[in-house]
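hey m, so remember when u said the tokens were messed up on ur end? i reran from scratch. heres the input so u can diff it against urs
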Amino acid sequence: MHRQVKAFIVAAAVAMVVAPRPARAQGFFVPWFGGTFSRSAEIRDLDNGKTSFGAAVGSLGGDLVGFDLDFGFTPNFFGSKAAVGTNNVITVTGNLIVGPTIDTSSGRGVRPYGSFGVGLIRSKAGSASDNAFGWDAAGGLMAFFSSNIGLRGDIRYFHTVNNSSATNTVLLKPGKFYFWRGYVGLVIR
């Protein structure tokens, strides 16, 4: 009987150690405010530092990988309405987020991350507009002050894709339009 109890205790201890942890997917919403800047050949002579705003919604599934859907809007991206007419840039991208979670049991902590995604980059200047497939790459940090509230800082690079052939699109061959966006947002999870 004593042997059976030992075997049961050892088996239970091994099961607790190797058993998978329950998934800790945490949804989040980030309203953000920032700015864009560029050295794109199409817009190199225009002012940089245009105000941009938007939101991201996503999930931080587990300790390393997550995803988000990012929406951004930059009015007057190409200059003043008087000079260019009504103009703006809209971005909608789905992104994979990779980065370790470093947190406490109270929910405080940080999550540095890298991100890559694809989606729509829509530019409009006057009566001309272009809906282009594009990609983005980002790096940033989420800092949580509690289990529900934090801040997110992000620097993100956007680039359109040369869609002249299916091969170019699949390989994400760079197009002519690109820019950077930096922002800070409130993380609500």
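this time it looks ok to me. The radius of gyration is 22 Å. if urs says something different then somethings off w ur setup not the seq
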